[in-house]
Design brief:
189 residues; 5 helices; binds flavin mononucleotide
Length: 189
């Protein structure tokens, strides 16, 4: 039986080798506390053999992620003409792993993560100048704030749409995880 997680990894590797900038990105959709849909681009990280997202708990997405037991994740790998739609449960990355990985972040994202302690991510500021000034005042550190978060994704459903078919009929398959095994269904594209 095809393992769609391995398939996804192989497609991302091919896309990365072909210089596809989306190979390391995804769109994560969630539901706001008032039930509205929300989406944003996040880096899709490989953590050992698992997929992970890193973000700051001060951001609105942090509350939104808790509104349901799964996230909806979209990838389009243009270089290989393949779309993936994932439904994934999630568990927190060990805070020690988050803290180690956080040290490798570039300076500006590190400073921003500390700024969020007093000004939450996605909140408004009086002006861009005020923002730049506030960032300037943040001391340089490699100690992660307690709001640095990582989620390991545990996909329960993976849909792959392969546009690259010589006869023009897209190859669409859905994989559902049942009893530790993946079950495949061919879908009408
Ligand atoms: C290419 C790209 C990569 C991004 N990667 C991340 C990321 O890994 N983590 C993150 O929190 N935001 C990332 N962002 C910013 C998010 O899209 C978003 O603007 C931000 O997280 C605030 O979202 P929120 O208001 O829904 O919390 C990225 C944006 C782009 C365009």
């Amino acid at each position: 039986m095809t393992d769609p997680v391995r398939l996804l990894k192989a497609d991302r590797d091919s896309a990365r080798n072909a210089g596809d900038p989306w190979a390391d990105l995804c769109v994560v959709a969630s539901i706001s506390p008032s039930g509205e849909p929300r989406s944003r681009v996040l880096v899709l990280r490989d953590l050992d053999d698992q997929l992970a997202l890193f973000f700051n708990a001060s951001s609105p997405k942090s509350e939104e992620f808790k509104q349901s037991e799964s996230l909806s994740i979209l990838l389009y790998l243009h270089a290989v003409k393949v779309q993936y739609r994932l439904t994934a449960a999630f568990t927190e990355v060990d805070p020690n792993v988050v803290a180690e990985s956080w040290k490798l972040r570039p300076l500006v994202p590190r400073k921003l993560d500390w700024l969020y302690a007093t000004r939450p991510q996605s909140s408004s500021v009086p002006s861009r100048e005020a923002l730049l000034d506030a960032i300037d005042r943040i001391p340089e550190t490699t100690t992660a704030p307690s709001t640095a978060r990582g989620y390991i994704l545990v996909p329960t459903e993976i849909e792959r749409l392969d546009l690259d078919q010589p006869n023009g009929i897209h190859d669409r398959r859905r994989y559902k995880r049942l009893d530790d095994d993946w079950h495949e269904a061919v879908l009408i594209p």
